[in-house]
């Protein structure tokens, strides 16, 4: 690391990348050294904004540099091989949700991260939305006597989806991983770290 910060690059300058870049730049943990997007003008614009190198070739970004962390916001169908390359170069990965196109690919990324002893994490800001946070705190209080059914709803009205999301091959048919990712994440998050008693309550056991 340089200057005590993670040397960081961004792959794919989507709306998610903007959120990740803004968050990273406001902490003391990341030093943005490069951005990459196939849109040359966009890459150069963001490079100027964050005072870092700009690339329009993902392969060149990874072969010409060594980073501690790679923020991945590009559609995984455009960069899956580069994510694997980054992992094999011991770069930690923070991926915009969802983790992958399907469960098999997600499991592959997790296995590779374990083999390379790096972190593979998914950025999901909705985890900390007020409603979800309140529900998490409610469960942690452990005052539910018996629970047999949870119904969860999420509404993303008006959100514009990229056209490739409707392509089954490119998107991996990812209805569960993409459209329901936030709900799946919440279920895992709520269960993670709970005591055996709390898990038993959630499972409806006495």
Summarize this structure briefly.
The chain is of the alpha/beta class and 206 residues long. It has helices at 15-25, 40-49, 58-63, 76-88, 103-116, 130-141, 168-171, 175-179, 181-191, 196-202, and strands at residues 6-11, 30-36, 53-55, 69-72, 92-96, 120-123. Helix content is 45%, strand content 14%.
Question: Could you give the topology of this structure?
Answer:
Layout: E1 6-11, H1 15-25, E2 30-36, H2 40-49, E3 53-55, H3 58-63, E4 69-72, H4 76-88, E5 92-96, H5 103-116, E6 120-123, H6 130-141, H7 168-171, H8 175-179, H9 181-191, H10 196-202
Parallel strand pairs: 1-2, 1-4, 2-3, 4-5, 5-6
- CATH hierarchy, class of the largest domain: Alpha Beta
Number of domains: 2
- Main sheet: strands, sense, barrel: 6 strands, parallel
* Distance separating the two termini: 50 Å
Spatial strand arrangement across the major sheet: 3-2-1-4-5-6
- Count of individual beta strands: 6
Gross morphology is globular
Contiguous low-pLDDT stretches (5 residues minimum) are 201-206
Helix content: 40-55%
Output mean pLDDT: 79
Supply the CATH architecture of the largest domain. Answer: 3-Layer(aba) Sandwich
Beta-strand share of residues: 5-15%
Treating each run of at least 4 consecutive H or I residues as one helix, how many helices? 10
The arrangement of helices and strands along the chain is: EHEHEHEHEHEHHHHH
Helix/sheet category: alpha/beta
């Amino acid at each position: 690391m340089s200057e005590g910060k993670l040397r960081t690059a961004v792959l794919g300058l989507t709306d998610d990348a903007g959120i990740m870049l803004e968050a990273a730049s406001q902490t003391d943990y990341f030093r943005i050294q490069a951005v990459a997007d196939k849109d040359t003008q966009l890459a150069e614009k963001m490079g100027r904004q964050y005072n870092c190198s700009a690339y329009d070739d993902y392969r060149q970004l990874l072969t010409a540099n060594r980073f501690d962390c790679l923020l991945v916001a590009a559609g995984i169908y455009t960069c899956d091989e580069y994510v694997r390359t980054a992992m094999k170069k011991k770069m930690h990965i923070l991926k915009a949700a969802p983790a992958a196109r399907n469960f098999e690919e997600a499991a592959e990324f997790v296995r590779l991260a374990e083999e390379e002893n790096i972190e593979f994490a998914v950025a999901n800001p909705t985890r900390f939305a007020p409603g979800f946070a309140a529900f998490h705190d409610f469960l942690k209080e452990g005052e539910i006597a018996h629970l047999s059914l949870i119904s969860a709803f999420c509404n993303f009205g008006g959100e514009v989806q990229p056209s490739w999301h409707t392509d089954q091959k490119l998107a991996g048919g990812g209805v569960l991983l993409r459209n329901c990712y936030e709900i799946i994440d919440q279920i895992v998050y709520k269960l993670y770290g709970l005591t055996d008693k709390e898990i038993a309550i959630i499972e409806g056991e006495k």
